[in-house]
Here is the input.
Amino acid sequence: MQTRIHITYAVSSLLATLALTAAVAGAAAGTSAPGRAAARDATLQLALDRVVAGGVPGAALLVRDGGRTIRLTSGFGNLKPRTPMRANDRFRVGSVTKAFVATVVLQLVGERKLALGDTVARWLPGVVPNGKRITVRQLLGHRSGLFDYGGDAHFVEAAYRNPLRDWSPRKIVAIAVSHPPAFAPGTRWGYANTNYYVLGLIVEAATGRPLAAELRRRIFEPLHLRATSFDSGPRIAGHHAHGYFLSPLEDVSVGSPSVVWAAGALVSNAEDLARFFTALLGGHLLAPAELRSMETIAGSTPLFSYGLGLEKVPTSCGAVWGHTGAMPGYSTNALGSKDGRRQVVVLVNGTHALGAASSNGFRGFGPPDRAGRAIDRLVETAYCR
Here is the structure.
Protein backbone atom coordinates (compact mmCIF):
# COMPACT_ATOMS: atom_id res chain seq x y z
CA MET A 1 0.00 0.00 0.00
CA GLN A 2 2.72 2.45 0.96
CA THR A 3 4.71 1.69 -2.19
CA ARG A 4 1.68 2.30 -4.37
CA ILE A 5 0.91 5.56 -2.63
CA HIS A 6 4.46 6.82 -3.06
CA ILE A 7 4.51 5.78 -6.70
CA THR A 8 1.24 7.64 -7.23
CA TYR A 9 2.73 10.67 -5.52
CA ALA A 10 5.89 10.55 -7.61
CA VAL A 11 3.96 10.44 -10.87
CA SER A 12 1.47 13.13 -9.91
CA SER A 13 4.25 15.30 -8.49
CA LEU A 14 6.16 15.02 -11.77
CA LEU A 15 3.07 16.02 -13.73
CA ALA A 16 2.35 18.88 -11.34
CA THR A 17 5.94 20.09 -11.55
CA LEU A 18 5.88 20.00 -15.35
CA ALA A 19 2.57 21.87 -15.36
CA LEU A 20 3.90 24.41 -12.90
CA THR A 21 7.09 24.93 -14.93
CA ALA A 22 5.09 25.47 -18.11
CA ALA A 23 2.68 27.82 -16.38
CA VAL A 24 5.43 29.88 -14.80
CA ALA A 25 7.22 30.10 -18.14
CA GLY A 26 3.98 31.19 -19.77
CA ALA A 27 3.43 33.83 -17.10
CA ALA A 28 6.91 35.19 -17.71
CA ALA A 29 6.00 35.54 -21.38
CA GLY A 30 2.86 37.49 -20.52
CA THR A 31 0.31 34.67 -20.04
CA SER A 32 -3.21 35.77 -19.11
CA ALA A 33 -4.99 35.28 -15.78
CA PRO A 34 -6.07 31.71 -16.73
CA GLY A 35 -2.39 30.84 -17.04
CA ARG A 36 -1.68 32.20 -13.58
CA ALA A 37 -4.63 30.24 -12.21
CA ALA A 38 -3.25 27.06 -13.76
CA ALA A 39 0.09 27.74 -12.09
CA ARG A 40 -1.59 28.17 -8.75
CA ASP A 41 -3.60 24.96 -9.17
CA ALA A 42 -0.41 23.06 -10.02
CA THR A 43 1.30 24.45 -6.92
CA LEU A 44 -1.61 23.38 -4.74
CA GLN A 45 -1.73 19.92 -6.33
CA LEU A 46 1.94 19.44 -5.58
CA ALA A 47 1.41 20.48 -1.96
CA LEU A 48 -1.59 18.14 -1.66
CA ASP A 49 0.40 15.25 -3.12
CA ARG A 50 3.02 15.83 -0.44
CA VAL A 51 0.35 15.24 2.21
CA VAL A 52 -0.31 11.79 0.73
CA ALA A 53 3.43 11.16 0.45
CA GLY A 54 3.52 11.80 4.20
CA GLY A 55 1.84 8.46 4.77
CA VAL A 56 -1.94 8.77 4.39
CA PRO A 57 -4.02 6.93 1.77
CA GLY A 58 -5.68 10.02 0.33
CA ALA A 59 -6.53 13.69 0.73
CA ALA A 60 -9.01 16.24 -0.57
CA LEU A 61 -8.60 20.01 -0.76
CA LEU A 62 -11.06 22.83 -1.33
CA VAL A 63 -9.94 26.45 -1.61
CA ARG A 64 -12.53 29.20 -1.97
CA ASP A 65 -11.58 32.82 -2.51
CA GLY A 66 -14.55 35.00 -3.38
CA GLY A 67 -16.16 33.58 -6.52
CA ARG A 68 -13.34 31.15 -7.34
CA THR A 69 -13.31 27.60 -5.95
CA ILE A 70 -10.52 25.05 -6.43
CA ARG A 71 -11.22 21.38 -5.74
CA LEU A 72 -8.30 18.93 -5.81
CA THR A 73 -7.71 15.35 -4.68
CA SER A 74 -4.77 13.00 -4.27
CA GLY A 75 -4.40 9.32 -3.46
CA PHE A 76 -7.18 6.90 -2.62
CA GLY A 77 -10.53 7.13 -0.90
CA ASN A 78 -10.69 3.35 -0.58
CA LEU A 79 -7.88 0.81 -0.64
CA LYS A 80 -10.00 -2.34 -1.22
CA PRO A 81 -10.73 -1.95 -4.07
CA ARG A 82 -8.40 0.93 -4.84
CA THR A 83 -10.60 3.89 -5.64
CA PRO A 84 -9.31 7.42 -6.24
CA MET A 85 -10.31 10.05 -3.75
CA ARG A 86 -13.25 12.14 -4.97
CA ALA A 87 -13.72 15.83 -4.25
CA ASN A 88 -17.26 15.24 -2.94
CA ASP A 89 -16.41 12.25 -0.70
CA ARG A 90 -17.93 12.41 2.78
CA PHE A 91 -15.70 12.16 5.87
CA ARG A 92 -16.16 11.89 9.60
CA VAL A 93 -15.10 15.42 10.56
CA GLY A 94 -14.76 14.96 14.32
CA SER A 95 -14.49 18.09 16.43
CA VAL A 96 -15.61 20.37 13.59
CA THR A 97 -19.00 19.26 14.95
CA LYS A 98 -18.41 21.60 17.91
CA ALA A 99 -18.67 24.68 15.70
CA PHE A 100 -22.08 23.50 14.48
CA VAL A 101 -23.35 22.71 17.99
CA ALA A 102 -22.01 26.01 19.33
CA THR A 103 -23.88 27.82 16.53
CA VAL A 104 -27.15 26.18 17.60
CA VAL A 105 -26.51 27.13 21.24
CA LEU A 106 -25.76 30.75 20.31
CA GLN A 107 -28.85 30.93 18.09
CA LEU A 108 -30.88 29.89 21.14
CA VAL A 109 -29.12 32.61 23.13
CA GLY A 110 -30.09 35.14 20.46
CA GLU A 111 -33.69 33.90 20.69
CA ARG A 112 -33.56 34.26 24.50
CA LYS A 113 -34.31 30.59 24.96
CA LEU A 114 -30.92 30.23 26.64
CA ALA A 115 -28.40 32.59 28.23
CA LEU A 116 -24.63 32.26 28.31
CA GLY A 117 -24.82 32.73 32.07
CA ASP A 118 -27.34 29.89 32.55
CA THR A 119 -25.99 27.12 34.74
CA VAL A 120 -25.95 23.43 33.98
CA ALA A 121 -28.15 22.88 37.03
CA ARG A 122 -30.77 25.21 35.52
CA TRP A 123 -31.29 22.88 32.57
CA LEU A 124 -29.99 19.52 33.78
CA PRO A 125 -30.67 19.37 37.51
CA GLY A 126 -28.75 16.61 39.26
CA VAL A 127 -26.86 15.50 36.14
CA VAL A 128 -23.52 17.23 36.84
CA PRO A 129 -22.13 17.65 40.37
CA ASN A 130 -21.34 21.31 41.00
CA GLY A 131 -23.63 22.13 38.07
CA LYS A 132 -24.74 25.31 39.84
CA ARG A 133 -21.27 26.78 39.25
CA ILE A 134 -20.82 25.73 35.58
CA THR A 135 -22.27 28.01 32.91
CA VAL A 136 -23.15 27.57 29.26
CA ARG A 137 -20.37 30.03 28.37
CA GLN A 138 -17.82 27.91 30.24
CA LEU A 139 -18.97 24.76 28.45
CA LEU A 140 -18.69 26.44 25.03
CA GLY A 141 -15.19 27.74 25.80
CA HIS A 142 -13.86 24.61 27.58
CA ARG A 143 -13.54 26.39 30.92
CA SER A 144 -15.85 24.15 32.97
CA GLY A 145 -13.16 21.89 34.41
CA LEU A 146 -15.22 18.78 33.64
CA PHE A 147 -13.11 15.65 33.27
CA ASP A 148 -12.74 14.46 29.68
CA TYR A 149 -14.42 11.07 29.47
CA GLY A 150 -11.79 10.01 26.91
CA GLY A 151 -9.39 9.78 29.84
CA ASP A 152 -11.42 7.03 31.54
CA ALA A 153 -9.47 3.79 30.99
CA HIS A 154 -12.52 1.55 31.39
CA PHE A 155 -14.49 3.52 28.81
CA VAL A 156 -11.61 3.45 26.32
CA GLU A 157 -11.21 -0.31 26.77
CA ALA A 158 -14.95 -0.92 26.32
CA ALA A 159 -15.16 1.35 23.27
CA TYR A 160 -12.24 -0.41 21.57
CA ARG A 161 -13.56 -3.84 22.48
CA ASN A 162 -17.00 -3.12 21.01
CA PRO A 163 -16.78 -0.26 18.48
CA LEU A 164 -20.46 -0.68 17.55
CA ARG A 165 -21.81 -0.17 21.06
CA ASP A 166 -24.39 2.60 21.35
CA TRP A 167 -23.56 4.90 24.28
CA SER A 168 -26.24 7.28 25.56
CA PRO A 169 -25.12 10.87 26.11
CA ARG A 170 -26.12 10.70 29.77
CA LYS A 171 -24.02 7.55 30.23
CA ILE A 172 -20.99 9.34 28.78
CA VAL A 173 -21.57 12.33 31.07
CA ALA A 174 -21.95 9.97 34.04
CA ILE A 175 -18.57 8.41 33.20
CA ALA A 176 -16.99 11.86 33.06
CA VAL A 177 -18.44 13.15 36.34
CA SER A 178 -17.44 9.97 38.17
CA HIS A 179 -13.96 11.56 38.10
CA PRO A 180 -12.95 14.67 40.05
CA PRO A 181 -12.96 17.85 37.96
CA ALA A 182 -9.69 18.91 36.36
CA PHE A 183 -10.03 22.41 37.86
CA ALA A 184 -12.59 24.74 39.39
CA PRO A 185 -15.07 26.19 36.87
CA GLY A 186 -13.80 29.33 35.15
CA THR A 187 -10.28 29.21 36.59
CA ARG A 188 -8.48 27.61 33.65
CA TRP A 189 -8.88 26.40 30.09
CA GLY A 190 -8.89 22.69 29.25
CA TYR A 191 -10.25 21.10 26.06
CA ALA A 192 -12.73 18.34 26.93
CA ASN A 193 -15.32 16.63 24.74
CA THR A 194 -17.51 16.26 27.84
CA ASN A 195 -18.39 19.97 27.59
CA TYR A 196 -20.18 19.46 24.29
CA TYR A 197 -22.06 16.38 25.51
CA VAL A 198 -23.51 18.55 28.26
CA LEU A 199 -24.28 21.30 25.73
CA GLY A 200 -26.07 18.80 23.50
CA LEU A 201 -28.26 17.74 26.41
CA ILE A 202 -28.96 21.41 27.25
CA VAL A 203 -30.06 22.08 23.64
CA GLU A 204 -32.47 19.16 23.87
CA ALA A 205 -33.81 20.34 27.24
CA ALA A 206 -34.27 23.93 26.01
CA THR A 207 -35.96 23.01 22.72
CA GLY A 208 -37.71 19.76 23.56
CA ARG A 209 -36.26 18.32 20.34
CA PRO A 210 -33.35 15.98 19.55
CA LEU A 211 -30.03 17.69 18.86
CA ALA A 212 -29.98 16.08 15.40
CA ALA A 213 -33.32 17.71 14.56
CA GLU A 214 -32.10 21.15 15.69
CA LEU A 215 -28.92 20.88 13.63
CA ARG A 216 -30.93 19.85 10.59
CA ARG A 217 -33.60 22.55 11.02
CA ARG A 218 -31.27 25.40 11.89
CA ILE A 219 -28.18 24.71 9.78
CA PHE A 220 -28.26 21.78 7.34
CA GLU A 221 -31.54 22.63 5.62
CA PRO A 222 -31.23 26.46 5.41
CA LEU A 223 -27.70 26.18 3.98
CA HIS A 224 -28.61 23.22 1.72
CA LEU A 225 -25.84 21.08 3.22
CA ARG A 226 -26.90 17.92 1.43
CA ALA A 227 -23.72 15.99 2.24
CA THR A 228 -23.85 16.76 5.97
CA SER A 229 -25.52 14.62 8.63
CA PHE A 230 -25.35 14.12 12.37
CA ASP A 231 -25.01 10.38 12.30
CA SER A 232 -26.28 7.83 14.80
CA GLY A 233 -25.62 4.65 12.82
CA PRO A 234 -22.19 3.03 12.48
CA ARG A 235 -21.93 3.15 8.67
CA ILE A 236 -21.42 6.24 6.53
CA ALA A 237 -24.09 6.60 3.87
CA GLY A 238 -23.41 7.66 0.29
CA HIS A 239 -20.08 8.34 -1.40
CA HIS A 240 -17.47 8.49 1.34
CA ALA A 241 -13.79 8.04 1.97
CA HIS A 242 -12.82 5.03 4.05
CA GLY A 243 -10.86 5.94 7.15
CA TYR A 244 -7.74 3.95 8.09
CA PHE A 245 -5.60 3.36 11.11
CA LEU A 246 -2.01 3.16 9.94
CA SER A 247 0.79 0.76 11.02
CA PRO A 248 -0.76 -1.77 10.96
CA LEU A 249 -3.28 -0.82 8.31
CA GLU A 250 -6.91 -1.22 9.37
CA ASP A 251 -10.15 0.12 7.90
CA VAL A 252 -11.96 1.84 10.79
CA SER A 253 -14.74 3.50 8.80
CA VAL A 254 -17.47 1.60 10.65
CA GLY A 255 -18.00 2.59 14.27
CA SER A 256 -20.55 4.03 16.66
CA PRO A 257 -20.77 7.84 16.46
CA SER A 258 -22.19 7.79 20.00
CA VAL A 259 -18.64 7.83 21.39
CA VAL A 260 -18.37 11.45 20.25
CA TRP A 261 -22.01 12.60 19.73
CA ALA A 262 -22.27 16.39 20.14
CA ALA A 263 -18.48 16.62 20.33
CA GLY A 264 -17.75 14.96 16.98
CA ALA A 265 -20.39 12.82 15.23
CA LEU A 266 -20.82 14.98 12.13
CA VAL A 267 -20.25 13.55 8.64
CA SER A 268 -19.68 16.05 5.84
CA ASN A 269 -17.59 16.92 2.80
CA ALA A 270 -15.30 19.78 1.84
CA GLU A 271 -17.97 21.73 -0.06
CA ASP A 272 -20.45 21.73 2.82
CA LEU A 273 -17.84 22.66 5.42
CA ALA A 274 -16.72 25.64 3.34
CA ARG A 275 -20.34 26.72 2.87
CA PHE A 276 -21.04 26.47 6.60
CA PHE A 277 -18.04 28.55 7.68
CA THR A 278 -18.69 31.10 4.94
CA ALA A 279 -22.21 31.55 6.29
CA LEU A 280 -21.20 31.51 9.94
CA LEU A 281 -18.29 33.94 9.75
CA GLY A 282 -20.10 36.07 7.21
CA GLY A 283 -22.83 36.76 9.76
CA HIS A 284 -25.64 34.76 8.15
CA LEU A 285 -26.26 32.30 11.02
CA LEU A 286 -25.77 34.45 14.11
CA ALA A 287 -26.62 38.00 15.08
CA PRO A 288 -23.58 40.29 15.53
CA ALA A 289 -23.62 40.06 19.34
CA GLU A 290 -23.61 36.26 19.33
CA LEU A 291 -20.93 36.08 16.63
CA ARG A 292 -18.74 38.43 18.70
CA SER A 293 -19.24 36.14 21.69
CA MET A 294 -18.23 33.14 19.61
CA GLU A 295 -15.04 34.90 18.51
CA THR A 296 -14.10 36.02 22.04
CA ILE A 297 -11.05 33.99 23.09
CA ALA A 298 -11.60 31.73 26.09
CA GLY A 299 -8.18 30.05 26.15
CA SER A 300 -5.00 29.53 24.17
CA THR A 301 -2.34 26.93 23.44
CA PRO A 302 0.93 27.38 21.53
CA LEU A 303 -0.85 26.15 18.39
CA PHE A 304 -4.24 27.90 18.49
CA SER A 305 -6.65 30.02 20.52
CA TYR A 306 -10.21 28.98 21.28
CA GLY A 307 -13.39 31.02 21.39
CA LEU A 308 -16.87 29.60 21.95
CA GLY A 309 -16.73 26.73 19.46
CA LEU A 310 -14.25 28.42 17.11
CA GLU A 311 -10.51 28.01 16.73
CA LYS A 312 -8.19 30.88 15.81
CA VAL A 313 -5.00 29.57 14.20
CA PRO A 314 -1.96 31.74 13.36
CA THR A 315 -0.44 31.73 9.87
CA SER A 316 2.33 33.76 8.24
CA CYS A 317 -0.29 36.08 6.73
CA GLY A 318 -2.58 36.49 9.72
CA ALA A 319 -4.95 34.36 11.76
CA VAL A 320 -7.46 31.95 10.25
CA TRP A 321 -10.72 30.96 11.91
CA GLY A 322 -12.72 27.73 11.88
CA HIS A 323 -12.23 24.35 13.50
CA THR A 324 -10.14 21.22 13.15
CA GLY A 325 -11.14 17.68 13.94
CA ALA A 326 -9.85 14.14 14.27
CA MET A 327 -11.57 10.77 14.42
CA PRO A 328 -10.22 7.24 14.04
CA GLY A 329 -9.09 7.19 10.41
CA TYR A 330 -9.99 10.82 9.62
CA SER A 331 -8.48 14.28 10.07
CA THR A 332 -10.05 17.62 9.10
CA ASN A 333 -8.87 21.21 8.82
CA ALA A 334 -11.58 23.76 7.98
CA LEU A 335 -10.13 27.26 8.28
CA GLY A 336 -10.55 30.64 6.64
CA SER A 337 -10.71 34.41 6.95
CA LYS A 338 -12.57 36.07 9.81
CA ASP A 339 -15.07 37.59 7.37
CA GLY A 340 -15.84 34.17 5.84
CA ARG A 341 -14.87 35.16 2.28
CA ARG A 342 -11.89 32.78 2.00
CA GLN A 343 -11.90 29.12 3.02
CA VAL A 344 -9.39 26.27 3.03
CA VAL A 345 -10.62 22.74 3.79
CA VAL A 346 -8.22 19.78 3.96
CA LEU A 347 -9.54 16.24 4.56
CA VAL A 348 -7.37 13.14 4.96
CA ASN A 349 -8.32 9.53 5.61
CA GLY A 350 -5.46 8.08 7.64
CA THR A 351 -4.50 8.51 11.31
CA HIS A 352 -2.44 6.95 14.05
CA ALA A 353 -4.10 6.09 17.36
CA LEU A 354 -2.03 8.34 19.60
CA GLY A 355 -4.07 7.55 22.71
CA ALA A 356 -7.60 8.69 23.54
CA ALA A 357 -6.50 9.46 27.09
CA SER A 358 -4.48 12.51 26.01
CA SER A 359 -5.30 15.96 27.35
CA ASN A 360 -7.35 16.57 24.20
CA GLY A 361 -9.42 13.41 24.50
CA PHE A 362 -10.16 12.03 21.04
CA ARG A 363 -7.72 14.47 19.51
CA GLY A 364 -5.28 11.68 20.29
CA PHE A 365 -5.98 10.56 16.73
CA GLY A 366 -3.97 12.31 14.06
CA PRO A 367 -2.10 11.86 10.79
CA PRO A 368 1.58 10.86 10.79
CA ASP A 369 3.93 13.70 11.69
CA ARG A 370 5.20 14.05 8.14
CA ALA A 371 1.67 14.28 6.75
CA GLY A 372 0.68 16.69 9.52
CA ARG A 373 3.53 19.03 8.65
CA ALA A 374 2.56 18.80 4.98
CA ILE A 375 -1.03 19.73 5.88
CA ASP A 376 0.21 22.80 7.75
CA ARG A 377 2.29 23.84 4.72
CA LEU A 378 -0.68 23.20 2.41
CA VAL A 379 -2.95 25.46 4.48
CA GLU A 380 -0.26 28.16 4.41
CA THR A 381 0.20 27.79 0.65
CA ALA A 382 -3.52 27.79 -0.08
CA TYR A 383 -4.43 30.68 2.20
CA CYS A 384 -1.39 32.96 2.10
CA ARG A 385 0.06 32.56 -1.40
Notes: The radius of gyration is 21 Å. The first strand starts at residue 58 and ends at 65. The mean pLDDT is 90.
